[in-house]
Amino acid sequence: MSSLSSRLTEIVSDIFVQLELPVELGQVDVSDRPDLAQFQCNGAMSAARIAKKAPRQIAEDIVALLRDRVEFETVEIAGPGFINLTVTDAYLQSHLQQTIMTDRFGAPNLGQGQTIVLDYGGPNLGKAMHVGHIRTAIIGDSLRKILSYVGYKTISDVHMGDWGTPMGMILSELEIRYPNWVYFDPDFSGDYPQETPLTIKDFEELYPTASKACKADPDRHKQAQSATLDLQNKRAGYYVLWKHFTNVSVESMKENYASLDVHFDLWKGESDVHDLIAPMVDLLKEKSYALQSEGALVISVEQHNDTKEIPPLILYKKDGAVMYGTTDMATLVERMNLYHPSKIIYVADQRQHLHFEQVFRAVQKAGIVPDSTELIHAGFGTMNGTDGTPFKTREGGVMKLDDFLEMAIHKSLEKLNEVHAENDLSDKEKNDIATKIGISAIKFADLQNNRISDYIFDLDRLTSFEGKTGPYILYQAVRIKSLLKKAGDHSFKDILVSESNKEIILLLTTFPDVLEGTCRNYTPHILCDYVYSLAQNFSSFYNHCHILSEGNETVKSSHLALCKLILDQIETCMGLLGIKVPERM
Ligand code: ARG
Questions:
Q1: 221-238 average pLDDT score
Q2: Hey, what domains does the chain have and what are their CATH numbers?
Q3: Is residue 440 in contact with ligand 1, taking CB distance under 6 Å?
Q4: In angstroms, what is the span from residue 121 Cα to ligand 1's centroid?
Q5: Is the pLDDT reported for residue 87 higher than 90?
Q6: What residue's CA is closest to ligand 1, atom 11?
Q7: SS3 272
Q8: How do residues 453-497 score in pLDDT, each as one tens digit?
Q9: pLDDT for position 422
Q10: Of 74, 164, 441, 519, which residue has the fewest beta carbons closer than 10 angstroms?
Q11: What atom of ligand 1 comes closest to residue 270's alpha carbon?
């Protein structure tokens, strides 16, 4: 399966080879001057330099061999030696039928069944999930869907932060408040209560208070650190209490992710690999990779060609507690053992880049991850408010994820009511549709920019039914749905290529390349650009062709078949972005 331009590249490359020119110069791309031609090949200029001939002469030689081919309507030379190509309608139609109208729209099989582990989410226990967690979840879950669509076996892990100093801060805060709880009695030997003493509401208040206190008072901070160490050593009362708050937190996290329609295969956390740390570190010591440095145990990760300093990764702090990097390393031990992945992708804030660089180097140096497994940090920028600073509540506080969702859904409901002042939708139907629109607005806004860039979340603009937004695309898809409903029962027949639909058909034939481009650097914005163009193209096609009143039955049926194909494509692409299309809106 391949895109039309890659099929044409094969044809043109063969001719380069026939003329003893480098094969890669036969690359054919979609033309950047669609008014002149559909495709172009710019290889003649470089070929001329190699063959020491005039570029136009080379172009003439190539064109002479291309002109006889049945695929092309026109083959022309422009400027110094650009080769402009336009295919015949018959060829375009047969290509459409043989690739795009088959299973998965001609999607390439890039994965060939290899396994990819995706690490996204990374919520922290005890802390409420906020909009900062939204980007990793949305980008990661979309990458999971896209990568499995192109043939990878994917395993996604939420990798909760559940083993670091914040845990000790909360435990020590509770110990100060409730010194009489059995969990804090070191001599207690009975059964601890089964019921959790805390709710999620308690947590939301506990961590900020504890963290503030620790910042203000070094002794209080020491107490938190020692509680962290005790927890990591699985001190009975601490461990039981910690288990309670894991359960309560996970329950609430699951609800949050479900309302965002984001899925994880594994609900593991940093704590899950604790028992792998000691043997891992023993091995590192044996191989003399783990070294003492100022009381801590570290692994050096510098490389001779570094242009800036890459500090060593700390395995054990002075007090013996493990760090973020230690758990990440041990998690790699586990992931390699259990899943043998060919790639592991971390979708995490770009500001953590140094951390991942250290971890990747450390595990490669130690032989924990072989060269055949690629480690990727797919970083992302910050989601800002319209004032250009990180998104906050109106009062300037941190906005919680569920409040954020609620806000987008509410706004979508307002917009929906504006568009349909009167309609027959029940309140429940309206709410369901508004939920889909709100989520589409959030997800599309997050995915449409290159993930590395910061972006501005402007709720009003992003929930609009016009412009490059999720709701705009849903709206076009829903228009097709209602058109097909009005057309009644139809068996979809051939799509006939004509002037009115050629642009869309050419666009549809690029889908395999769009997927390849998206997977090359794990950038869903490429897929967003494509689906947005498709929706825009459909809209102008729809405005130009009066499909339902078309008198010629063959033409009408071709139009309807094309609309159905576009709808399937839009729904598939939106699905890959984690967005569902409603029946009406
Ligand atoms: N819990 C981390 C945070 O909130 C993100 C975890 C990312 N994944 C990882 N394996 N380090 O910053």
A1: 95
A2: 4-87 (3.30.1360.70), 401-576 (1.10.730.10)
A3: no
A4: 7
A5: yes
A6: 328
A7: helix
A8: 999 999 999 999 999 999 999 999 999 999 999 998 777 778 999
A9: 63
A10: 74
A11: 10
